[in-house]
């Protein structure tokens, strides 16, 4: 059992589930063995009904599909299809957010408002909307409409892609991968992978990159910016994480998924005095709304709502026996939730027409009735509290404090101060050798890997080598549960240079930057580092890297492609299913560097992966002729001495 997770709370719930005969994703994953070897290599094609076709990797069996397609093209086509699906998920999220802002601006929604007017005005100027002749609602409607146009745009270039440094844009234009419209690129990509279409592996991969760039510099950026405008740009906020945030004496509602529109309203309604009084009438002391996955990150960084766990803990939250309702919206929602919920009193509630689950109660979310729907859901959860079987309740004690909600906007102020906001201290820290560089740790969980192990191994190794870490999504969930989003973590895990900067500025060594669509914040931070100067004129020159060590979904494929195409070398594990094609593997791990200035690292050993990421940063530093690092990395003995010497609380700046 200990090889399942590094999270004690998760292990306790897995033992409980086994003892109560409840099957979880971990068990269902085991039942899939042995897996198809052809599929693992990417050499399986199901694009038409002449198949499935498979290519023999040893050269003794078929080397072409029934239509004559090669193994290289099959592997590339599978990646391209995956990237298009992932890009569509993030971009559809962005479209829904834009729709909600548009309706709010027209006064057609219930309970919503425009909270960040300053960011609205800045974005209006950026996208060419007159911000001086109308009220805020009219400006918001025009900005939302302008963003919605980006989805169906047929010609030209995406507006948000213009944020990229000039060298990056020139590279995209030369390779003809500058995205035009978000939907335009996804549809073209899906057309190209239809039977009888493109069979050139390099051309397929370039178009997959184009669709992915439409996600990273289109749909995801739209989602991030418009969510900030509508619900408020996050500021650093304290909260707690892990299954221990659930309470025996409270009604526990877990919200799970990715879109913030309904979850924000559920938190608001649950904190209302009327609902809390209803909870007391039903025997509970209070109502706790906690999150799973990226919905968790959304309500965490804006409302301080506790984070119950990441992707592989969605079923385990129910196994505590203390969850009255699990409310889900879209993406990363396991249909197995319905099976687990039936073993307890928990009500599974779906809210999107795009994500219905048999056995769940469905409340169709409509922004025009958002408050009413949220009240119905919270009321149903409160009423369910009396049905809780106390004999089945076991809430793990594990939980950790955290600080979340870092953005490009507030990092400016943390680094430079309110009256001199600047990225200069960050760049100077890198130039002077206090910081080796910055690594973005992002991604999912995968039941085929030990839950959270790769994240913890890699991040601890990076921190002791003076690497500042920024994180989003389920990786942020892992690192928050393990205490690395707490400023005090600098005394336990950081090298001397990183610790000096964190202590001076008052920030944790791992900065929570939001949900998985908020990887766009990381891109924007890189843009600001380039603008500040001194460490390169292009993102590909910066001492930065990316890492998705427990990847799981099509969205991860899209993210990986747009991050690398943006000039950021990225570790990705489990690797794309490309090992059946030497040409595709060589292109992604080497060839992309010549075209985009970055490449993929496919490495299953997390300690080795951390070493390769550190090597990338060192190579970038050497190319920029930066000063050598001021301090050697801490070994285990030195780290223990530092921990004992400096174990005292620190204020958040």
TrEMBL record:
Which stretches are annotated as coiled coil? none
EC numbers for this chain = 1.2.7.4
Q: Which GO terms describe its molecular function?
A: 4 iron, 4 sulfur cluster binding; anaerobic carbon-monoxide dehydrogenase activity; hydroxylamine reductase activity; nickel cation binding; peroxidase activity
Signal peptide limits: none
Q: Which Pfam families match?
A: Prismane (PF03063)
Residues that, per the record, bind [4Fe-4S] cluster 1: 36, 44
Reactions catalysed, semicolon-separated, are: CO + 2 oxidized [2Fe-2S]-[ferredoxin] + H2O = 2 reduced [2Fe-2S]-[ferredoxin] + CO2 + 2 H(+)
Q: GO biological process: any one? A: response to hydrogen peroxide
Q: Which residues bind [4Fe-4S] cluster 2?
A: 45, 48, 53, 67
> Does this UniProt record's set of keywords contain Oxidoreductase?
yes
| UniProt entry tagged with the keyword Iron | yes
Write down the required cofactor(s).
Answer: [4Fe-4S] cluster
- Supply the alphabetized keyword list: 4Fe-4S, Iron, Iron-sulfur, Metal-binding, Nickel, Oxidoreductase
The entry marks the following residues as binding [Ni-4Fe-4S] cluster, namely 258, 294, 332, 444, 474, 516
The name this protein goes by in its record: Carbon monoxide dehydrogenase
Species name for this entry? Candidatus Abyssobacteria bacterium SURF_17
GN (gene name): cooS
